[in-house]
Write a structure and sequence with these properties.
Blueprint: H1 3-70, E1 74-79, E2 84-87, H2 89-95, H3 99-102, H4 107-111, H5 121-127, E3 131-139, E4 145-156, E5 162-171, H6 173-218, H7 225-251, E6 260-263, H8 264-283, E7 286-292, E8 299-302, H9 304-321, E9 325-333, E10 341-348, H10 376-386, E11 390-396, E12 400-408
Parallel strand pairs: 7-9
Antiparallel strand pairs: 1-2, 1-5, 3-4, 4-5, 6-8, 9-10, 10-12, 11-12
Helix pairs in contact: 6-7, 8-9, 9-10
Length: about 425
């Protein structure tokens, strides 16, 4: 083979080798392109899943924040260093502290030695033990004590790593007030029972003493000094008999079976007509009696005599509170629908009641009158409660007082 032929053969072999390598490179490139496409697709899928996961986490975060903000319970959480990380709206309302002043700061710095640092979150972090429902007192930012029920626990992630601690608490001030009121009602019930028993035992010998005193009084001449002394004894016995009678009324429970359904406005008409003669005219004062209600019948289930006694006690107090002149207004406000209460207001233009006495005027034996028994308004309150009703008072010293009576209606409104 000649030299030229050898060169030609070499070039031909080189070209074939190049072509084969080019084909290999092309196949490798195509394979790599397919892999890149697959990786791009996989990356897009992972990005989509990541975006969905982030969106879900954001949704859950917003939902959790919304739940925390709408909770009636206060929530406070701290990290492992004792710095506040969460402080919801209810926590702000219960404590008086703003979250902007609390979050990110140490719980000790925010609340000092009182409140959350007292045996709760820090104790949980130190001991690793939470509180299952307990009671304590938090201190409002204004310095007022706030009784709360609370529970606390450690915060950990899914791997068990400690993140901090959380406390959930609720204001139970109203519950404490109701407990105190319930205890007072039990005390009053026991007092009423004792008063009724005691008054019953006293009333008979007291009546006999009064009778014998009056008989003895008749035996003395008019100008006899002993007759004046005996008169004071009779007056004292009469006053004592009045107190005992009031105690009997206060202690008597009554029976709901004796309730009758009546049109309260007819009873008011009847009562006001008789009251003007028996109370206003007899008092010798110039008092205008004003009636404010329409004739729409409103029915209530009551013991009429007890309600008349309620109205009479309040009217007598109103007349006594006014000077020689004044105005007594009786207002009846219709309820808007069945199942509600009719409101009866008795308003005078008297001296009014000092604010310091408004909370105690319904307490037994509380009186500002020289010869008062202190049972009149206590009896009124008890009679209203017996009728499932409510009584409240509003007063402005120097201007007058309004007693508001609420009685549940029965039947259908027109």
């Amino acid at each position: 083979m000649s030299s030229e032929q050898e060169k030609l053969q070499f070039l031909q072999n080189a070209f074939e080798s190049f072509r084969e390598r080019a084909e290999l490179l092309e196949r490798a490139y195509n394979h790599m392109s397919e892999k890149i496409s697959e990786l791009n697709i996989e990356l897009d899928e992972k990005n989509n899943r990541l975006e969905e996961s982030l969106a879900e986490q954001e949704r859950l975060r917003i939902q959790l924040e919304s739940i925390m903000e709408t909770m009636h319970n206060g929530v406070i959480s701290v990290d492992t260093q004792g710095n506040v990380t969460q402080f919801n709206r209810s926590a702000e309302e219960i404590t008086g502290y703003s979250r902007h002043d609390v979050i990110g700061n140490s719980v000790d710095v925010c609340f000092g030695e009182k409140g959350f640092s007292e045996g709760t979150i820090h104790e949980v972090l130190r001991s690793g033990k939470g509180h299952e429902r307990d009671e304590k007192v938090l201190w409002h930012s204004l310095g007022d004590p706030v009784p709360v029920v609370y529970q606390s626990s450690l915060l950990k992630d899914h791997t068990g790593e400690l993140l901090g601690a959380v406390e959930i608490f609720s204001d139970i001030s109203r519950v404490k007030e109701l407990e105190k009121e319930n205890q007072q009602n039990k005390t009053l019930a026991a007092l009423g029972e004792m008063a009724a028993t005691l008054a019953h035992e006293i009333k008979n010998p007291l009546g006999a003493m009064g009778t014998w005193a009056r008989l003895l009084d008749r035996t003395f001449p008019v100008d006899d000094q002993r007759k004046k002394t005996l008169g004071k004894i009779i007056d004292a016995l009469s006053r004592l008999n009045k107190i005992v009678s009031s105690m009997l009324i206060f202690g008597r429970q009554g029976n709901a079976v004796s309730f009758r359904t009546v049109n309260i406005k007819e009873l008011l008409h009847e009562f006001i007509d008789s009251m003007e003669v028996e109370v206003v005219f007899v008092s010798g004062k110039s008092i205008d009696v004003v009636k404010v209600w329409d004739e729409t019948p409103v029915f209530v289930a009551i013991e009429p005599e007890k309600i008349r006694q309620v109205l009479l006690n309040l009217v007598i107090n109103a007349v006594q509170a006014m000077g020689e002149e004044g105005s007594l207004t009786v207002t009846c406000i219709n309820p808007e629908s069945t199942g509600e209460y009719i409101q009866i207001n008795i308003t005078d233009t008297g001296a009014g009641i000092p604010e310091s006495e408004l909370e105690t005027i319904f307490a037994p034996f509380h009186t500002t009158k020289e010869n008062g028994t202190g049972l009149g308004l206590a009896i009124v309150k008890k009679m209203m409660e017996f009728h499932k009703g409510v009584i409240s008072v509003k007063s402005t010293p120097g201007e007058g007082t309004t007693f508001e009576l609420f009685l549940p209606i029965v039947g259908q409104l027109p």
